[in-house]
Amino acid sequence: MMKNRRGRHERGAPHADDAVAIAVRGLVVRRGPREVLHGIDLVVPTGQVVGLLGPSGGGKSTLMRSIVGVQVTHGGEVLVLGRPAGSPELRREVGYTTQSPSVYDDLSVQDNVAYIARLVLPRGADVDAEVARVLDLVDLTSHARDHARNLSGGQRGRASLACSLVGSPRLLVLDEPTVGLDPVLRRSLWDLFHRLAADGTTLLVSSHVMDEAARCDRLVLVRDGGILADSTYADLLRDTGATDAEQAFLALIDRVDGAAPAPDGAIAHPGDPGDPGPAPTPSGGGDGIRQETS
Ligand SMILES: Nc1ncnc2c1ncn2[C@@H]1O[C@H](COP(=O)(O)OP(=O)(O)OP(=O)(O)O)[C@@H](O)[C@H]1O
């Protein structure tokens, strides 16, 4: 059994490639009558904060749902920590927050978290200590006894985030966790994300606020069901000649739409001639994708 960077014994998942937390190949998803992901290839390295950025309706949530295994998929492969997305073995390894905070209004904040902790933690674990730990991480200790219905929007979001931090999952998939937060809270959440990453957790964080790009170790720009770029913020600015993420995003769109030429050394886009394609995926995954809900 291996130990991770936190010194914990890791639970069961194969480790064909510890450097890769998520490997997506050729992912196709249809929702209703439309195909909304058109053959996505994506590799997310372990221990990084990877931002999934792009305009509303581009497919960020659908991609995240596919990664956590709650999305019916129609082609391709999604491996998470070396296993097919949605595998039962991943339930304690992957934390997920949806865009709408998932908390029980009629329970206190601490009881919401304790409920999840009793489901997630091994028998005999110190639930109270874990509740205190995660509430401290999201700065909600002073609201521990408040009913969730009495929280502000930002506090509800952090209560939901606290639930997904229970048990220190190795992968956190967070759908717009900073939406509606004031700048101070946004900064403190991004600081938390980087502390977790420094401790070995991988984070996939979506946002349609382009100025959050600078806070990510890696950026994946999603538009119209495809990946427009997969880069670092610095490389994105260098390769587009832009001064901020929004400008860079628009420059990439113009380039893809044929309105602007790519400068030398431009970012390789998936599917471009010369694009080396995704990094090798870890072996040990299944031959299909678990399909749980529509
Ligand atoms: N339940 C659904 N049924 C049918 N189509 C859907 C459903 N949910 C989303 N879609 C469609 O799938 C596409 C991708 O949506 P998705 O929610 O993944 O985008 P997004 O980038 O996360 O957007 P946002 O930033 O607004 O959350 C959109 O065209 C959307 O209309």
Automatic annotation (TrEMBL):
Keyword Transport annotated: no
Q: Where is this region: Disordered?
A: 261-294
Task: Mark out the compositionally biased spans (Low complexity).
Answer: 261-271
User: Which Pfam families does this entry report, sorted A to Z?
Assistant: ABC_tran
Question: By its UniProt entry, which SUPFAM superfamilies does this protein fall under?
Answer: P-loop containing nucleoside triphosphate hydrolases
| CDD domains (alphabetical) | ABC_DR_subfamily_A
Q: Which UniProt keywords apply?
A: ATP-binding, Nucleotide-binding
| Molecular function per GO | ATP binding; ATP hydrolysis activity
Q: Does the keyword ATP-binding feature in the UniProt annotation?
A: yes
Classification via PROSITE patterns: ABC_TRANSPORTER_2 (PS50893)
- The residues covered by the ABC transporter domain are 22-249
Q: Which PANTHER family match?
A: ABC TRANSPORTER G FAMILY MEMBER 20 ISOFORM X1, ATP-BINDING CASSETTE, SUB-FAMILY H, MEMBER 1
Q: What is this protein called?
A: ATP-binding cassette domain-containing protein
Record organism = Arsenicicoccus cauae
